[in-house]
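Revision sheet: structure tokens.
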Amino acid sequence: MDYSFTQHVTGDVSNTNLPAAIHGSKVLLIEDNPGDARLVEIFLADSDLHHCKVVNKTTLSDALAQLETGELFEAILLDLTLPDSRGFETLEKLVTRFPHNNIIVLTGLSDKELGVKAVKAGAQDFLIKGAFDSDSLAKSLRFSIERNRVLKRLEETQRIANIGNWEYVLSTGAFEASDEVYRIFGCPPQNMTLPPLGEKHEDCPLFTLQQVHEAASASGEFKKDLKVRLKNGEFRYVFIQCLVQTRQDGQKIFQGIIQDITERKMAEQEMVKSRERYQEIFTQSKDALFICTIDGKFVDFNQATTNLFGYSDGELLELQDAHSLYHPVERKNEFLLKLKNQKSIKDFEINIAHKSGEVRECMITANIIVTDDFVGYNCMLRDVTELRQAEKMRKARDLARQSANMKEQFLASISHEMRTPMNAIFGMSNILLQTEMSGEQFNLINSIKQSSEILLGVVNDILEISAIQNGKIVFENDSFDLHEVLSNLVNVMQYKAQEKDIFLETIIESDIPRFISGDKLRLNQVLYNLVGNAIKFTDKGFVKIYVKKLFDVQDNVQLKFIVEDTGIGIPEEKIEAIFETFTRIRQKGRIFEGTGLGLSICKNLVELQGGKIGASSMVGKGSVFYFDLIFESAEPPGKAAEPPAEEINVLAPDALFKLLLVEDHKMNQIVARKTLERKWNNIQITLAEDGQQAIEKMNEEDFDIVLMDIQMPVMDGYETTKYIRQEFSGKKSRIPILAMTAHAHISRDEKFKEYGMDDFVLKPFEPEDLFSKITKYVNSSLHEHSRKIHQS
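Predicted:
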């Protein structure tokens, strides 16, 4: 038999060194003639493609069904004459459904022209039955295999680059594209027909390409970045390029590529946002941000830079050496050296010279920048002048506070050391004044007592002004009887007024409420100071105390207290000065006794409560001191319940009670014992010289009350009280404990209450104050004990 072969491909594909993948290759043979089908199998078996598997289908419909399964074939051998399809129509059906498959048409000897036409219509090759042999069949199949390999590499390249290609035939609407195009648009990888130009089908993801075709029709070319929306609502960015070509038959074909540039676009958008954020930070930053050449010429800077240096934009750009504004020179040189060596520097302290000459303290952070045409650094300058000043002020305040605390501790320590011996002097004087003695002896002892009182007043004033300066004054708000306060004031001051034959009087307006709420102790303190001064500086005449109401709104009442005297008076130019610390009144070389702190204390106490204090005076005529404070109106206290008869008389001469005195100072032991025994002859006093001894004494017997010194060896008063409250039980754990201390600040910190003490008596003590508190707490304790006995 005479075999002949017609080659319709280019290039030499006779090389048999094809990949091992051929061994698993398959060929789809669509042939209804068993003889022809068998001949193909024989030719393949006789060639180097003998490992290829031949799948034979006898009808076009069966072949199409096989291809629909997705099974892959290296080539399709197609007979154009089939039971269900004949002639050129058979090829068209197959090409239309599966345009990317390699189709080799099998024709008869008389159909050679049909084979050529088939190639033009999309077939890869054609073989004439009866004219091809095993070599020509193998050569055509090798070309198909190699073509598939090239296409796969192309598809892989497109996938990696996110680039797909397509072709659109305007007249037929036929559209072919690589798999990557369908992936980009989220469409199934199959042939699609676009809507005709002019018709809009926006639900079609490929509608974007139709728009491209419309644009390209006018200019012949299209190139643009587009944002497309997929069916699932997702947006993607694509780059599309399209060219319009006209075939010889006049048909217009649109060919183009499409690239998924979503990631690049997102990165670009993020970069734009980043630039905008940077620009906003750069513009809005309160810190000076700038770029400078290594020799000190400004390149770029923000508004804060011009504000910091004080120069305009133009002046900064014209400045030849920005480093000349860095001070001092040593720090500038150190900065530049470190920057060059380390390439980066952070929070370097340096001063900046403002255009006005003002020097600003700054922190500089900089990084070297080196490019092909630039050497310099970017810089952030933070003005810390105010911060440094605030830090200095804070340190100064801390130092002042520390100094004030040390001063207060020193004064408290001195006060304690002074009050301890003063308690002995004061107490012994009181005891001696109650004994029989001559008039001269009485006067001498009384002078000792008065001198002690003056010294105590000095100590109290110094401690009070220290507490005010340190902000440790606490104001109470308790209800009290205003008439009683003024009556007690007159009673205490009366003897001093009588000594100088001065008339002392209190005048209260009738519409002033008798019961008010406020700080009774501080009101007393101010009035005692003002009235005491008035008596001290008045040799004849009177001292009058007025109380007037300024206003009464709801529950608040503002009262004005006036102290008027007929004393020596004060020069007008000295009125303001007398309220300053350590200011004393002089008269013709005479300096009146006192610390010069009393009026300063009064001023602070009044103003700290929101009031005002002032004075008016005429030399030789007298003075008027006045202050106002706001109080709350209060209800009269209810009538106190009458205590049982045994409670009233518990400290009567026939009622023995036992007192534990805990005191380490010998003289204070004597003063306390003598003072108490002279008051009550039915008292039994047991002495303990430290806290440990006190606990031992309480283990041995019962007591009615404890007088507890605070500062003692072995075990101090606080720890002793804590032990008694926690370790003893029953009546002993509840025994009244009064602190007897020379610590003047005890009333402020109330530490004694935290440890369980009931009250305190300040040394040197007033006997009546001590007697009153002992009576109060012993009666209360015995009454409670008696009530519990009756209940049981």
